[in-house]
Automatic annotation (TrEMBL):
PANTHER family assigned to the protein according to its UniProt record, in alphabetical order: GLUTATHIONE S-TRANSFERASE OMEGA, PTHR43968
SUPFAM superfamilies per UniProt: GST C-terminal domain-like (SSF47616), Thioredoxin-like (SSF52833)
Pfam families per record: GST_C, GST_N_3
The UniProt record lists the keyword Cell division: no
UniProt KW keywords: Transferase
GO cellular component terms, semicolon-separated: cytoplasm
Name of the protein described by the UniProt record: Glutathione S-transferase family protein
Keyword field contains Transferase: yes
InterPro entries membership: Glutathione-S-Trfase_C-like, Glutathione-S-Trfase_C_sf, Glutathione_S-Trfase, Glutathione_S-Trfase_N, GST_C, GST_Omega/HSP26, Thioredoxin-like_sf
Residues in GST N-terminal domain copies: 1-76
Length: 220
């Protein structure tokens, strides 16, 4: 049995679920009890997702994805030759290392209590997006003609990336390959499923967060 501890709204959780859908794996999602001793015992870093597979515990989403590829190599989401496999790994690494500032920018726009250097985050994100644009394939999916692990990472990131437009930031539309890619994946049923799940979870999270904020300011 494969259990994934995490929330559907997390892009790091969603990439593993998307991989599971693409490979036809049965993955049970279980809420992550972040901050509890039980969760820290599974992952001392304290972040979701954590995978549990027949007693084996594994944190870090990209390592989890690689583990699932090793367990279930067919159909491959890495690729059929070294170049495809390298690109399927390069795009996730670019997203994680250079495009994660997106989350700080979105949070800064909605949470007045969150302090971040917006200009620095924006500059870093632009650098990451330039790299992403460079590595993206001009046709087909992100790293090859078919869906790959690169899409499993990029599609959940785009759920939040598409929200940049809501805060008056047209960054994504300035990239031709990324814009073409967004149109392509919008028609993909697996991407649609992941975005729908993320949207439900995100809306529920925001409703609760706003209620908590209102309650806190009423008692202040
Ligand atoms: N490098 C980690 C990042 C995971 C991550 O940042 N997860 C967030 C949720 S989106 C989290 O658990 N945050 C809780 C916290 O930082 O306390 C991975 O790829 O799994």
């Amino acid at each position: 049995m494969i259990v994934l501890h995490g929330s559907a709204g997390s892009p790091y959780v969603a990439r593993v679920r998307m991989q599971g859908y693409a490979k036809g794996l049965d993955i049970t999602l279980r809420p992550a009890a972040l901050g509890t001793p039980e969760f820290e015992a599974m992952n001392p870093i304290g972040k979701m997702p954590v995978l549990e597979h027949n007693g084996f515990i594994l944190p870090e989403s990209l390592i989890i994805c690689e583990y699932l590829e090793d367990l279930h190599p067919t159909p491959t989401l890495l690729g059929h030759n070294p170049q495809e496999r390298a690109l399927a790994r390069l795009i996730p690494r670019t997203v994680d290392l250079y495009c994660a500032g997106l989350f700080s920018l979105l949070r800064a726009a909605s949470d007045p209590g969150y302090s971040v250097n917006v200009d620095a985050e924006r500059a870093n994100l632009n650098k990451g997006l330039n790299a992403l644009e460079h590595f993206l394939q001009p046709t087909g999916y992100a790293a090859r003609a078919e869906l790959s692990l690169a899409d499993c990472v990029l599609v959940p990131w785009l759920y939040y990336g598409n929200k940049l437009a809501d805060i008056g930031d047209d960054s994504l539309s300035r990239y031709a390959k990324l814009s073409r890619y967004i149109e392509t994946v919008a028609d993909d049923p697996i991407a649609q499923r992941v975005w729908t799940e993320m949207d439900e979870a995100f809306r529920a999270f925001m409703t609760k967060w706003k209620a908590d904020q209102a309650a806190a300011s009423a008692t202040a």
